[in-house]
């Protein structure tokens, strides 16, 4: 009887993590389906990436000129409703270029052509699920206990990476690629250094670099620290070769289309970002915001207190780290990049939790270093530290759960409002008019179905309406009188956020109007 019970508990312990992952992955797909109940939910960065995928679908994978349904009445893109930091104007002889790298978006274009638009939104979730299972596979290979594995994976993926992965984004594939790159680097400690493992580590980190540039700082730190640890230039050389192969492909593509090896987004950040040469004070303000939060964004230590728990654990086991120098390398590279990235970006990565995506490579490197340490140190022999760590993990999960739940609540409410807004936009025969760039983030799928324009003031309003036939029905989106403008937005385009349209002074007959989240939606007829 005792043996049967022991076997039962052993089997439960073995399958417990997978039960957790099935529930987590099922929840993620279910939540995405709920967001799409009133139509495809996409906004902000995800919306721009969707428009680029549509552009590649309609005009070919190498097309550059911005998709613009209203181009027939505005060939100069004067009324284009998308601007910094997503579009750059008059670059390489083109009136407008959407700035995101195309590599992940080509996958979306292929899926869209093969299946449907709805299938496009599932792509990031499949990569996210793969990253969840891969991290568990790594921890299982390190012989971590099932319950500990499950908690570490949950703390990693039911956290701030989830609230960005729900969107149409390359982030989940980016996470999967650099996790594989990190894994090969840790494998050099497990099985001994070899040219193959260093090359593969560099190669996968290079592939991640093709998708998002912020992996560069963790890679450089790992590269430098690994060289000092192994003291073998041959290994470092092949790690560098692995990274360089995909990086050269990226540089070649970027230079061929934009004239700069880092692409249109970098050109825009220099050309339009007024903080490109930010001083030390602003850089340290951004560092504080990314780590501890401020009035614009939530810091990583506030959203995910487990980061603090890991740092305290590392500090308390500092003597142990002398026996595991490679773990020390991982920790140093993770913490170093967590500090250096905010000091180099010179802008907020987004409002609220959204900017934390820049710190995800550092966060996952810290998680892997922590798991590797626990696999090397049997804390069960030290009951008090083990109990303290277990309690800290539970408490961290509680606070992280509430932060993540709040982030998902914001997405759910946003999707409901987007559904109402899309219904109103559908009343327009052709044109949707934005009084401000502020409302352009709410265009969603409608941008591909209707002709959206952004008009600055009544002079532009009159000029535009002269081109619209009489008795045509339009929808106007009017910004609130007082709106928040992100510190990232260049002052030269502030008028496109703040100049109102006075509809009573335009040749319009107002039929209906309503307010939604501060925005006034007006259904009107041209007279």
UniProtKB/TrEMBL annotation:
The chain crosses the membrane at residues 12-31, 110-135, 147-166, 172-188, 200-229, 235-255, 326-349, 355-374, 386-403. The keyword NAD does not apply. Keywords: Membrane, Transmembrane, Transmembrane helix. The keyword Membrane applies. It comes from the Bacteria. This is Glycosyltransferase RgtA/B/C/D-like domain-containing protein. It comes from Leptospira idonii.
């Amino acid at each position: 009887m005792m043996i049967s019970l022991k076997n039962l508990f052993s089997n439960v312990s073995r399958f417990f993590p997978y039960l957790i992952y099935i529930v987590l992955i099922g929840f993620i797909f279910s939540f995405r389906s709920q967001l799409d109940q009133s139509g495809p939910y996409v906004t902000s960065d995800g919306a721009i990436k969707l428009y680029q995928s549509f552009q590649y679908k309609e005009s070919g994978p190498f097309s550059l000129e911005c998709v613009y349904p209203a181009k027939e009445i505005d060939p100069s893109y004067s009324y284009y409703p998308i601007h910094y930091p997503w579009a750059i104007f008059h670059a390489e002889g083109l009136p407008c270029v959407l700035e995101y790298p195309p590599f992940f978006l080509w996958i979306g274009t292929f899926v869209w052509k093969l299946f449907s638009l709805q299938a496009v939104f599932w792509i990031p979730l499949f990569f996210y699920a793969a990253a969840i299972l891969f991290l568990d596979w790594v921890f299982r290979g390190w012989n971590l206990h099932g319950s500990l594995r499950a908690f570490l994976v949950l703390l990693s993926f039911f956290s701030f990476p989830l609230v960005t992965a729900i969107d149409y984004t390359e982030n989940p594939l980016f996470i999967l690629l650099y996790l594989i790159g990190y894994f090969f680097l840790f494998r050099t400690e497990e099985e001994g250094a070899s040219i193959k493992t260093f090359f593969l580590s560099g190669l996968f980190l290079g592939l991640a670099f093709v998708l998002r540039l912020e992996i560069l700082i963790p890679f450089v730190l790992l590269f430098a620290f690994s060289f000092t640890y192994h003291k073998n230039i041959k290994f470092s050389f092949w790690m560098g070769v692995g990274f360089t192969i995909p990086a050269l492909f990226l540089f070649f593509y970027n230079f061929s289309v934009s004239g700069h090896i880092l692409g249109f987004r970098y050109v825009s950040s220099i050309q339009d970002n007024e903080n490109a040469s930010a001083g030390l004070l602003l850089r340290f303000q951004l560092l504080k915001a990314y780590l501890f939060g401020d009035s614009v964004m939530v810091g990583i230590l506030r959203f995910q207190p487990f980061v603090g728990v890991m740092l305290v654990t590392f500090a308390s086991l500092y003597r142990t780290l002398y026996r595991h120098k490679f773990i020390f390398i991982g920790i140093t590279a993770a913490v170093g990049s967590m500090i250096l990235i905010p000091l180099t970006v010179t802008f907020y990565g987004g409002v609220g939790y959204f900017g934390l995506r820049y710190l995800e490579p550092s966060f996952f490197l810290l998680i892997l270093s922590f798991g590797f340490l626990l696999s090397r140190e049997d804390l069960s022999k030290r009951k008090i530290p083990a109990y303290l760590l277990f309690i800290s993990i539970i408490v961290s999960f509680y606070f992280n759960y509430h932060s993540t739940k709040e982030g998902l609540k914001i997405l759910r409410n946003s999707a409901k409002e987007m559904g109402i807004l899309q219904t109103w936009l559908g009343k327009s025969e052709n044109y949707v008019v934005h009084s401000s760039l502020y409302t352009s983030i709410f265009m969603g799928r409608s941008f591909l179905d209707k002709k959206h324009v952004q008009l600055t003031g009544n002079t532009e309003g009159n000029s535009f309406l002269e081109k619209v036939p009489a008795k045509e029905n339009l929808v106007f989106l009017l910004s609130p009188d007082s709106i928040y403008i992100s510190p990232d937005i260049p002052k030269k385009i502030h008028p496109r956020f703040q100049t109102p349209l006075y509809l009573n002074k335009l040749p319009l007959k107002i039929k209906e109007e309503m307010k939604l989240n501060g925005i006034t939606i007006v259904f009107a007829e041209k007279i």
